[in-house]
Amino acid sequence: xxxxxxxxxxxxxxxxxxxxxxxxxxxxxxxxxxxxxxxxxxxxxxxxxxxxxxxxxxxxxxxxxxxxxxxxxxxxxxxxxxxxxxxxxxxxxxxxxxxxxxxxxxxxxxxxxxxxxxxxxxxxxxxxxxxxxxxxxxxxxxxxxxxxxxxxxxxxxxxxxxxxxxxxxxxxxxxxxxxxxxxxxxxxxxxxxxxxxxxxxxxxxxxxxxxxxxxxxxxxxxxxxxxxxxxxxxxxxxxxxxxxxxxxxxxxxxxxxxxxxxxxxxxxxxxxxxxxxxxxxxxxxxxxxxxxxxxxxxxxxxxxxxxxxxxxxxxxxxxxxxxxxxxxxxxxxxxxxxxxxxxxxxxxxxxxxxxxxxxxxxxxxxxxxxxxxxxxxxxxxxxxxxxxxxxxxxxxxxxxxxxxxxxxxxxxxxxxxxxxxxxxxxxxxxxxxxxxxxxxxxxxxxxxxxxxxxxxxxxxxxxxxxxxxxxxxxxxxxxxxxxxxxxxxxxxxxxxxxxxxxxxxxxxxxxxxxxxxxxxxxxxxxxxxxxxxxxxxxxxxxxxxxxxxxxxxxxxxxxxxxxxxxxxxxxxxxxxxxxxxxxxxxxxxxxxxxxxxxxxxxxxxxxxxxxxxxxxxxxxxxxxxxxxxxxxxxxxxxxxxxxxxxxxxxxxxxxxxxxxxxxxxxxxxxxxxxxxxxxxxxxxxxxxxxxxxxxxxxxxxxxxxxxxxxxxxxxxxxxxxxxxxx
Length: 726
Ligand code: ADP
Ligand code: ZN
Ligand code: ZN
Hints:
Elements lengths: L6 E7 L7 E5 L10 E6 L2 E9 L15 E2 L7 H14 L3 H9 L11 E6 L9 H10 L5 E2 H8 L3 H9 L3 E6 L19 H11 L7 E7 L5 H14 L3 E5 L7 H11 L4 E3 L5 H12 L5 E4 L11 E7 L16 H12 L2 E6 L4 H8 L4 E5 L7 E9 H4 L9 H12 L3 E5 L8 E4 L16 E3 L4 E3 L6 E3 L13 E4 L3 H11 L5 E4 L6 H12 L5 E4 L12 E6 L13 H13 L8 E8 L5 H7 L3 H15 L5 E10 L2 H13 L11 E13 L2 E11 L4 H11 L8 E6 L6
Parallel strand pairs: 9-14, 9-15, 10-12, 10-13, 11-12, 13-14, 16-26, 17-24, 17-25, 23-24, 25-26
Antiparallel strand pairs: 1-2, 1-4, 3-4, 3-5, 6-7, 6-8, 18-22, 19-20, 20-21, 27-29, 27-30, 28-29
Helix pairs in contact: 1-2, 1-10, 6-7, 17-18
Bound molecules: adenosine-5'-diphosphate and zinc ion (2 copies).
C-alpha cells in the first residue's frame, strides 16, 4: 500500500480486538502500511498501526479520523506479518500481540533535546566566588548540561540561571547522547581453539542473507558464547542488527560485561528491570537503527529492528522462553518465524537442546554444530547415583552419608559445593500429628508451603499466605504441627548444623528479586561462599570457577507428574546443575540422590551419555505421537463452580468437529487439572493431539467458533504447544 492521504485505511489497535478497524485519514495527513498512529476508540485514545486497505464496509461519514500519525519509522513488513502469524498460530487476539510489539507510547515521540550551556566570554559586572567557580569550569569552551554543571561546581541552579540572564552563559539545545555506543566487531576477539574455530566456520557456511537455523550444541563450558559472539561480529560487519535472547535470570551484569569486553561497548538491554522511560528510549533507538545489538529477555524478539540479521537464543531449551499469559508464545519458535520473515539467521545454543530442536537437527532442518570438549581441558563431571532405597540419609536428615562425606572432603580442599533442590521454602506440607489435619490453600488445590525464614505458610499458586499458627487450626492441639518433606530452607538448616564452618548462601527466588540473585551469582563467582544451597535459579548459565562438587538432593523431583516433557525437563536440569561442577581445569563430581537409579534419565546422566537420553526420549515420543512427532493443544476451562467448568468442557468435547483421518486427531478429557483449583477457579483440561502436519491451531479456532460460547465467569484458555501441564 502506498502513501494514503486522505482516504480510508484499516488500523490495528493495540487492545484486545480481533481485527483492524477502519479510520479516515484526515486532510493534510499522510500514512502508509506500518505507520504508527493514535486513533479514538469509543471514549479512549489508543495507539495503533495502519494495517492496510479497509476491511469492513462502514459508511464514510460514520468513520472517525486518525488523530495523529507519529513521526517514527513505520513498523517493518516483516514485523507486521509476525503479528498476524502469532495471532493465527496461538489464537491470541492480534491487537494483544501488537500490544507486545508496541509497548510504550512515549517511544514514538521524538527524543527531547537536552539543554546545554556554553560560556560566551562575557564577564559579569559583579563577580562572586560561586560565579567564578562556574566560569572556571566553563572556560574550556565545552557545553555542559545543568545537572553536570551543578554537580561539578557545587553552586545552586539559580546561580546558573542568573549567569544566563547576564549573558555570561548561553543556553542551547542538542540531541541527547546515543543510548549505546556502536559495538566494534574487531575490538577484542579471543583466539578460538580448534573446535571453536571449526564450529564458527561451520556456522559461516550458512548464507548470511538467507533464513537458516543452526543448533549450537555444545557441553557447558565449551565456549558456545565465544563462538556466537563471532557470529554477532559478522552481523555487525554486515550492517544488520543482532539480538541475543537469554532467560531473564541469566541476563546478568557478568554477561553484559563479557559482551563489552569483546565488543568495546555495551549492548542495548531489554529486560523487566527497566523503567518505562528506559524502555521507551531503547525502543525508539532500536526503531531508528541506532542500536546494533540487543541483549534481552524473551520479549526482545518483538523489538522493531529495521534490518534484523541474527537472532541468538542462548539456553534455547529453557522453559522461561515460553510466555504463558494472554499471548501464549514460545520466544524460540517465534524467533524462527521472525527470522524466516526477515531472511535472518538463528543460532540456538544449548548444552541440553530441547528434544524439538535436537530432532530438527537430526532431520537436517537445522544445521547441527556440536562442541564436545570443554575449554582449557576442563573435564565433564563424574556423576554418581546414590540409591535412596539402599544408602539414604538418616532419619530427620536429607543429605545421604555418602554425599556428606564428599562435602566434607571438598570443603577441606577449599572447593565450592552446590546443594541443589528444586523446591522453595522450608517444607512442602504442614501436618497436625494429633488429628492429621493438612494445611491447604483455601483457594487452590495445593498444600501451603512453610517458609520458615518469613514465618508463613504460603500457596505457590496464588500467593495466599497465613502466619504459621501455634495451634492446629482444626483440633486446637498445641505444638503438634510438623513439617513434612524438605524445601531449600530445610536443607540450609541441615547444612548449618552439619557444616557449621562453611560460608553458606541460599539462592531461591524468595531471597529477594532478580537483582539480589544476580549479586549473589557474582559473589559466588568471586569465591565468597563455600556452600551454595539453591533451587533452579542456580542452574542457569553461570560460571562458578571454584565449584567442584554438586549434590542433587532429589533428582526424581519433576519425574512424577503426568507431564509428557517430565523426562526432558529433568534431564536438562540435572545436566545443567551438574554441569556447574569442575569448569576450570579440574574434573568435578556430582551426586544424584534418587529412588529410581534405573530410570533412563539417571542412567544417561551416570554414564555421561547425552546421546542415549535423546535416543530414548525421541523413541518414546515417536511411539506416543508426542511433540516433535505430533502436536498438542491444551484447552483449560475454568469457572468458580466445578460443575459449570466441567459441564462446559464436556459439551465442548462432545461438539468437537471431526477431523480427517490422516490428522490422527485424539481428544483427551475433560479431566480435572492436576492442580484442580487456582485462585478459587476450578480448572478442567482438554487436550487435543494430532499428527504433526495437521493445522491444529485452525482446528481449535474452528472448534471454539462452532462450539458453545463461555458465559458468566467461564473462561477458556488455549495453549498451543503447551509446555506445562499443571
Ligand atoms: P559455554 O557458553 O559453552 O558454556 P563459555 O563460552 O561461557 O562456554 O566458555 C567457558 C569459559 O571459558 C568462559 O569463561 C570463557 O571466557 C572461557 N573461554 C572459552 N573459550 C575461550 C577462548 N577461546 N579463549 C579464552 N577463553 C575462553
Ligand atoms: Zn490437629
Ligand atoms: Zn492458592
